[in-house]
């Protein structure tokens, strides 16, 4: 017999019958007779928010994840009451809510069932902390697949997996390890060629189960807070990802140099070592734009200080590096050393800016400097103070970017590796414990850092990178996948992680090339470089405890492969820049898993390795040693082997030969790929032509090229160049139409168009309806034309 009252009532609780409802504007509220309220808000015809409370009223509606600058609106909304349910209809979907228990189901307008509750919303009282453990379970359809969730070191398709979201410092993590550094509680479901998304905007520790515990049930739950989630309808995965990215926000355009190659190590010091590294890059003609300084540049690991023994004149050093094309990036951690003679600590203490325990004393934890206090970045006053601390680094010394690390937050020598859960946070006027603030701590640090860097680097654009992040962090920062390991398994993990981050809204992501922990072989490093140059963020980083990891740390062959692939990245910078422009303008991910590219082809649903880089390039890394090629899946359509220009029909798995200095790369037929000449750093060269590689296709295709001044904010005033190419290929004819938008005039005056795969001999060329003189013999030999920029239509006729 149970006599303990708490135990007697412990267990799952459920909404009871609906007793009333109200419809006001874009929101409909349903009230049950046991005080549960479900508030349904229609943000768009395909974006619906579901918010539950069990106490008869809602707490303050606040989210760090949602981009409040986005305007929402729907085209159609109708609410009707039926005998057993309510129906909410938009121009895209209809939602039925049962009167008996608030369980809901969502259909398209053809009555196809997209998603339905199993148990639906339920909860359990949290007797240890107060509040509720909130839960949701959904029925899963046969063959349903699941994607997203950000930084997860597991298969692309999450079917059969259970994952945990709690930002954690996981040094040398392994495949399937949970949790990791980032928290992105957003997933994409796909069944019967229909995609939808769920974003569970809850910053407490959350869990997702994709049919692991029960075969046909998907569930998600949190240790506290509200059951507050957004449903996003596709039906294409592209629509789901774009809508979610709009909801949580997009970054501003980075300066072009940020898309170059970066070199980092824990740590490069003293100054002579830094210059030795940068000089070697220039000597070997391996392009590089950024050099990083890890924690050893500081005085006793105190943030915003310099070790003058290692770096006696940092301003002079940074200026000299800049003359050679290197931008200096420095690390800044959240732990502020407890030292009464340290000016940052003095200010934080004087102004009461550090996090406190529940009963009053400051949160104290050991990090690199020893005992530290930690700023409460959830307080806007503290964020403003933190932003101001960057003045000397950026304005005076000339540092170009900041790297935030250890901001999960990580604390050494404690069992849970982070703050105690009783630490209090301001949470922008919604005071709470660390249970609620933990997952957004790193994002708010990155936010404060971003505003500081942006303020002092102006009129140039800022660059910030963070290890820990929550949904929406992409508005302020790039990221990397944390302390990985120099193993072939981690090369496989890195490939999937960056793809997954890309479709989870955080596209500006890369991995530590070569692995942070342990030491790669030359072969592994070369294969990682070959993958890493196709990631949005491209940086080699390693632990100094495990040997050297510069390209020349191996042999001449690895040096040559590194030069070849980094040079290729620099050639593709206009293509990369265009990818980024489409990401910030339209929410289109820069990397596209094959399932995103073609969800109707079931062969793509379980592919991990292959991905689309931008819109037109297919990449498949080599992920095992001693490989002379690999099997890979070429998606449906027509493609050209980048290295051989051989034509390939997709929709099938094929063997592709691949030498050590190559990986399988294919270009979509009909595409135009823009290229710059190889530069050792962005801005090194002036050039008078843009190379355009055109890959012939019978039919139509679109390609785009975005350019601007490569830094600064004139692009926001219309001073950009956006070229839209439309190609029409026929058996003996090719038409290239060009439309330009924007007021920016590129410094080059010509296009060099390389024609690949032309099936006919060219006999006539017209530009804007005027025939031009050209040498058929030379064209036959070289297959290119040099034309003045600014044409509207290029017409090529053959026989």
UniProtKB/TrEMBL annotation:
Organism per entry: Flavobacterium calami
Residues forming coiled coils: none
Domain Glycoside hydrolase family 31 N-terminal: residue ranges: 38-209
Domain Glycosyl hydrolase family 31 C-terminal: 587-673
Pfam families referenced in this protein's UniProt entry, alphabetically: DUF5110, Gal_mutarotas_2, Glyco_hydro_31_2nd, Glyco_hydro_31_3rd
Domain DUF5110 stretches: 689-757
Entry GO MF terms: hydrolase activity
Keywords: Glycosidase, Hydrolase
Superkingdom of source: Bacteria
SUPFAM superfamilies with a match to the protein in the record: (Trans)glycosidases, Galactose mutarotase-like, Glycosyl hydrolase domain
PROSITE patterns noted in UniProt: GLYCOSYL_HYDROL_F31_1
Family stated for the protein in its record: Belongs to the glycosyl hydrolase 31 family.
Protein name: Glycoside hydrolase family 31 protein
Domain Glycoside hydrolase family 31 TIM barrel span(s) in chain numbering: 251-579
């Amino acid at each position: 017999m149970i006599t303990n009252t708490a135990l007697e009532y412990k267990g799952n609780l459920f909404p009871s019958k609906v007793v009333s409802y109200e419809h006001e504007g874009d929101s409909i509220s349903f009230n049950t007779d046991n005080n549960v309220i479900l508030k349904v808000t229609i943000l768009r015809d395909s974006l619906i928010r579901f918010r539950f409370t069990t106490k008869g009223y809602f707490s303050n509606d606040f989210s760090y994840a949602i981009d409040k600058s986005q305007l929402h609106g729907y085209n159609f909304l109708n609410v009707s009451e039926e005998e057993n349910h309510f129906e909410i209809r938009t121009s895209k979907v209809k939602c039925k809510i049962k009167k008996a228990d608030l369980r809901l189901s969502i259909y398209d307008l053809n009555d196809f069932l997209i998603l339905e509750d199993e148990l639906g919303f339920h909860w359990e009282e949290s007797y240890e902390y107060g509040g509720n453990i909130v839960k949701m379970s959904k029925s899963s359809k046969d063959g349903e697949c699941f994607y997203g969730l950000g930084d997860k070191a597991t298969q692309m398709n999450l079917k059969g997996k259970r994952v945990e979201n709690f930002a954690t410092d996981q040094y040398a993590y392994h495949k399937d390890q949970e949790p990791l550094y980032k928290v992105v509680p957003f997933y994409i479901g796909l069944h019967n060629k229909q995609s939808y998304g769920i974003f569970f905007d809850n910053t407490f520790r959350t869990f997702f189960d994709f049919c692991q515990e029960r075969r046909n049930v998907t569930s998600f739950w949190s240790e506290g807070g509200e059951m507050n989630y957004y449903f996003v309808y596709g039906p294409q995965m592209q629509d789901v990802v774009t809508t979610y990215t709009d909801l949580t926000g997009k970054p501003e355009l980075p300066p072009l140099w940020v898309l170059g190659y970066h070199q980092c190590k824990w740590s490069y010091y003293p100054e002579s070592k830094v210059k030795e590294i940068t000089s070697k890059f220039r000597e070997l003609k391996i392009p590089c734009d950024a050099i990083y300084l890890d924690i050893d540049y500081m005085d006793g690991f105190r943030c915003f200080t310099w070790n003058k023994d290692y770096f006696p004149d940092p301003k002079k050093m940074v200026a000299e590096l800049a003359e050679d094309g290197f931008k200096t990036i420095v690390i800044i951690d959240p732990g502020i050393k407890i030292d009464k003679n340290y000016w940052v600590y003095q200010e934080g203490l004087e102004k009461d800016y550090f996090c406190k325990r529940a009963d009053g004393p400051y949160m104290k934890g050991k990090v690199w400097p020893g005992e530290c206090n930690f700023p409460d970045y959830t307080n806007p006053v503290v964020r403003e103070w933190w932003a101001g601390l960057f003045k000397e680094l950026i304005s005076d010394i000339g540092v170009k970017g900041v790297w935030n690390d250890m901001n999960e937050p990580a604390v050494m020598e404690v069992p849970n590796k982070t703050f105690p859960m009783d630490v209090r946070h301001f949470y922008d006027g919604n005071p709470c414990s660390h249970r609620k603030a933990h997952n957004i701590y790193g994002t708010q640090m990155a936010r404060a850092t971003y505003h500081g860097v942006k303020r002092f680097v102006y009129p140039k654009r800022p660059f910030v990178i963070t290890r820990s992040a929550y949904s929406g962090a992409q508005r302020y920062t790039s990221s990397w996948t944390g302390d990985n390991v120099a193993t072939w398994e981690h090369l496989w993990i890195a490939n999937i992680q960056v793809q997954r981050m890309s479709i989870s809204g955080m596209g500006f992501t890369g991995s530590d090339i070569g692995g942070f922990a342990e030491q790669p072989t030359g072969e592994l490093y070369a294969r990682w470089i070959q993958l890493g140059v196709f990631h949005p963020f491209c940086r080699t980083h390693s632990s100094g405890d495990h040997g050297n990891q510069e390209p020349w740390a191996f042999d001449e062959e690895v040096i040559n492969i590194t030069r070849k692939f980094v040079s290729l990245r620099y050639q593709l910078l206009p293509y990369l820049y265009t990818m980024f422009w489409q990401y910030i303008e339209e929410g289109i991910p820069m990397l596209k898993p094959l399932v995103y590219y073609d969800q109707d082809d079931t062969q793509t649903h379980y592919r991990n390795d292959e991905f689309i880089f931008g819109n037109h390039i297919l990449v498949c890394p080599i992920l095992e040693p001693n490989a002379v090629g690999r099997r890979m899946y070429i998606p449906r359509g027509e493609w050209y082997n980048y290295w051989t220009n051989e034509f390939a029909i997709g929709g099938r798995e094929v063997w592709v030969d691949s030498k050590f200095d190559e990986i399988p790369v294919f270009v979509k037929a009909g595409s135009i790929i823009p290229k710059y000449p190889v530069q050792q750093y962005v801005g090194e060269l002036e050039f008078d032509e843009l190379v355009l590689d055109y890959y012939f296709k019978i039919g139509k295709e679109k390609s785009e090229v975005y350019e601007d001044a490569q830094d600064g904010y004139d692009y926001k005033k219309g001073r950009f160049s956006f070229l839209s190419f439309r190609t029409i290929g026929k058996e003996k004819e090719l038409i290239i139409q060009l439309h330009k938008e924007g007021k920016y005039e590129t410094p080059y005056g010509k296009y060099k168009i390389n024609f690949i795969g032309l099936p006919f001999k060219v006999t006539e060329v017209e530009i804007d309806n005027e025939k031009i003189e050209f040498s058929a013999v030379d064209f036959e030999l070289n297959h290119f034309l040099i034309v003045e920029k600014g044409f509207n239509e290029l017409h090529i006729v053959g026989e």
